[in-house]
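Table S7 (text form). Paired inputs.
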Amino acid sequence: MSDNNDLRITIGGKTLVVSGGDSAEHMQKVADYVNGKLEENKKSPGYERMSMDTKTILLELNIGDDYITAKDKLDDALIVLAEKNKELYELKQELSSVKSKYEMAKNQVVELQSKAAETAAKIIKLETELKKK
């Protein structure tokens, strides 16, 4: 059983059947992109006087330029993402440390409140004893 999809597309006015493992929508999107590049190239000065080889090279250069530009943007985005992930990791570590310190401080507050209550009780007891004398 074949996983390839066959699709009839038109590029540069020529209809052909392409076959691939990608979805029909994806293959049509690629065909539309190439047709868009062809239309852009047709607007270039002297395009009609160029040989077919030159037109093909111009198309390849334009597609290659788009690819390299997109790849460079992706590479830059991946670098930013890695930096943000590192920053996020550091912030998570800091948050964990702050939570730990908070819990320790909270426990100290409870202990001090308990001691304060004991001390207040002792003071009341001593004041009561002092009044009795």
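Next pair, protein 2 of 2.
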Amino acid sequence: MLRCDFVALTAAASTRSPAIYTRPLAKLIEEFQRLPGVGPKTAQRLALHVIKRPESEARSLAQALMEAKQQVGLCSICFHLSAEPVCEVCRSTSRDQQTLCVVADSRDVIALEKTREYKGRYHVLGGLISPMDGIGPEQLNIGQLVHRVNKEDIQEVILAISPSIEGDTTTLYVGQLLKPFTRVTRIAFGLPMGGDLEYADEVTLARALEGRRELD
């Protein structure tokens, strides 16, 4: 009986707020929790860390956030994140101009660049086709991709899209559109179904690029 009472009291206590924060601190914790992958404990730790640091560091953090928000947009050519109208990759004359790697998100560009294996250019779709979420081809940068491939001298398009239902749907759709214009390949994956490029290590991604195959 005592055991049951103890369990009941513990369960009831766990439903209560674990701490009472002063309002500004509570607001800061709440804002940190909006960040992806940040739970209550991590948000609290980050907030307390900021509070304990000198005011100059807090101002520097706030300034960096505002500058990034105000200055970082999308490259007018490939739609990768850029503070300039055209990103550094698209401006570079040393990159392979005839190879285009298609990814879903800018995070994938960053992951592939870390491998130091890919020397071509990119095209960021801005998401994946997902009818359940109301995202069709018209909501993505697919039309611009077809225009680039048709207009430029692209010899190969590499589809580097994470394996998932939405990813496979997008890969097949884009591949069928581009096949009449150029060679279309898909990178090999050492990733489980639903795995994301951004979480793969550099060696896995490098081998995936090397082992790419023609899209069926």
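The longest strand covers residues 99-103.
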